[in-house]
Write a structure and sequence with these properties.
The chain is α/β, with parallel strands linked by helices. The two termini are about 50 Å apart. A hairpin with a 5-residue loop joins strand 19 and strand 20. It is elongated, with a radius of gyration of 31 Å. The strands form seven sheets. Strands 12-25-26-27-23-24-13 form a seven-stranded mixed sheet. The longest helix is centred in the first third of the chain and has 16 residues.
């Protein structure tokens, strides 16, 4: 194992140890509280939305730590709050986890599976004098609870045990109106930790549950149900985000005071993932979807895993990102550019190269014979020769990127302008001879002459070519495509900051749609193969590097062989600043 190397913000890469790894190693070592036991973690998402990149960090920690110690990890749907939960989200969560490369085998559970047990343990606490039915409203209880210096008792705190038992049964039977009563744990009203000041552990909700229907009208609070579920499943380490650190005493109190025949799980907290120009709240992401600010949960601008997948992010790039940012105990904000870098590094090794022109202008090779065409072989990936080559065609009529021509060049411009010689990628050297304009003065055609002795791009006389290598597409052997260019959904680096309305920070230029782009005709056959896939949205669509432009993938939802749609996954670094 590599020696621990910590950074200034207490993060480490997955190749090194981190504080969670060290705690687990200590626990399973000789004399540790879990000596000789299998490391057992769990990932407990609430099925009220789609997983996003923030969940991915927790997911990689939960499943990843189990893998590193040869242990196991459960998947448990935390469906104890039925208000926004749905089977659609359950299915999507499982699909995303499998897409990332993790599996739970037969260890798939629902929090609602434990409702009967939760109820039994709640009755046990009442019988022990450790819980009581309270009739204060949340606002009233807040007044009674006071601050650290003025705690007060609920007038129902000393309610007789038999009376609380009878009222709790009425609550379960639906004989008490919603909001009229709650079940509170009787812990410590003077505690400096407000989570220990008689917290609510059950509330009444007359609502249909996505699995239980109307069987239950009382539901356990997360802080009560979660530690019980962990203990019943044999979890050794409950790994959770930092906001639960203050809840840890309550977590421990629950498992210590109910008669679960199992050792106490250990809760360990880590900092949530924060990324600039992004919001991670599922409530706010749902608002974006429901109010039509985005096209859906899988909109490629969304930080959801299905949105990132649709944009072209690979599972490997996301897992690498989680490795690179490491595990921290203090909250920090990661630049979105770091996630882009991880994707660029992955796609640079795997993506096939092709030529596409996004802003096409005609390029006519005036001295090339009319009606003639020839073929050239270009490499699919210069970083991996084993990926082979593919055939492109060349003719008199080509398409050129509009930005690759300037009638009057600016300093250091090495693309096409009158008198400038450049390479056409994989084909010939050409010298620009002029252009044709429309009645408004717009360039509609660029003219050039080719050097017949420079096939493949190398001049026969060995002369040095000052111009750049330009990509192009044969006008006689290409198809039109729609291309979608994505930018940050929010223009503010911290749209979710204090005293901010995140909707005010939305970037009006987060999506640009280009029609009439020109791509190699071979894209049609690739699209046909993709159209035949059974689960298009659950997998990555074919991804390409459009030479000199960026990495693009077929849209896994809207694209078809009849109407090609490409999403820009990530741009290339452009050496020329416009």
């Amino acid at each position: 194992m590599a020696e621990e190397i910590k950074t200034v913000d207490n993060t480490e890469t997955s190749e090194n140890t981190n504080f969670i790894y060290n705690f687990i190693k200590e626990d399973i070592s000789l004399g540790g509280q879990f000596e000789g036991k299998t490391v057992h973690t769990r990932f407990p998402p609430e099925p009220n939305g789609y997983l996003h990149i923030g969940h991915c960090k927790a997911l990689c920690i939960d499943f990843g730590m189990a893998e590193r110690f040869g242990g196991i990890c459960n998947l448990r749907m935390d469906d104890t709050n039925p208000a926004k939960e749905d089977t659609e989200y359950v299915d999507a969560i499982q699909q995303d986890i499998h897409w990332l490369g993790f599996d739970w085998d037969d260890r798939f559970f629902y929090g609602s599976d434990y409702f009967e047990k939760d109820y039994e343990y709640a009755i046990e606490l009442i019988k022990k004098g450790l819980a009581y039915v309270c009739e204060l409203t949340p606002e009233q209880f807040k007044e009674y609870r006071g601050d650290t210096s003025t705690p007060a008792r609920s007038p129902y705190r000393d309610r007789p045990i038999e009376e609380s038992l009878a009222l709790f049964e009425k609550m379960r039977n639906g004989e008490v109106e919603e909001g009229k009563m709650t079940l509170r744990a009787k812990i410590d009203l003077a505690s400096g930790n407000f989570n220990m000041r008689d917290p609510v552990i059950y509330r009444i909700r007359f609502i249909n549950h996505h699995r239980q229907g109307t069987k239950w009208c009382i539901f356990p609070m997360y802080d009560f149900a979660h530690p019980i579920q962990d203990a019943l499943e044999g979890i050794t380490h409950s790994l959770c985000s930092l906001e639960y650190e203050d809840h840890r005493p309550l977590y421990n109190w629950v498992v210590e005071n109910v008669s679960i025949p199992y050792h106490k799980p250990r809760q360990i907290e880590f900092a949530r993932l924060g990324i600039d120009h992004t919001v991670m709240s599922k409530r706010k992401l749902r608002q974006l979807v429901e109010e039509k600010y985005v096209s859906g949960w899988d909109d490629p601008r969304m930080p959801t895993l299905c949105g990132l997948r649709r944009r072209g992010y690979t599972a490997k790039s996301i897992r690498n990102f989680c490795d690179v940012i490491g595990v921290a105990k203090s909250t920090n904000i990661i630049e979105f550019a770091e996630l882009e870098r991880c994707l660029r590094d992955d796609l640079n090794l795997t993506a096939e190269r092709t030529m596409a022109v996004l802003h096409p202008v005609k390029l006519t090779v005036t001295n090339y014979p009319e009606g003639q065409s020839e073929q050239f072989e270009v490499e699919n990936n210069p970083t991996d020769p084993s990926q082979g080559t593919h055939t492109i065609t060349f003719s008199r009529n080509l398409w050129l990127e509009a930005d690759d021509f300037m009638e009057e060049p600016i300093p250091k411009y090495k693309r096409m302008y009158p008198g400038m010689e450049v390479r056409l990628k994989g084909a010939y050297l050409v010298t620009c001879t002029g252009c044709v304009k429309d009645e408004n003065g717009n360039v509609v055609e660029v003219l050039c002459e080719y050097d017949p002795e420079s096939r493949g791009g190398d001049p026969a006389d060995g002369r040095k070519v000052k111009g750049a290598t330009i990509h192009w597409v044969d006008a006689n052997n290409c198809v039109d495509a729609e291309v979608r260019l994505y930018d940050n959904l929010f223009s503010d680096p911290q749209p979710d900051g204090p005293d901010k309305n995140f909707l005010d920070a939305m970037n009006p230029e987060s999506l640009t749609v280009l029609n009439g782009c020109k791509v190699e005709k071979s894209m049609v056959e690739i699209a046909k193969e993709f159209d035949a896939r059974e689960n298009r949205t659950g997998t990555n669509a074919p991804t390409f590097q459009f030479m000199r432009v960026g990495f693009f993938c077929l849209d896994n939802k809207d694209s078809s062989a009849e109407h090609l749609v490409f999403n820009r996954s990530v741009s290339l670094k452009d050496g020329f600043k416009k």
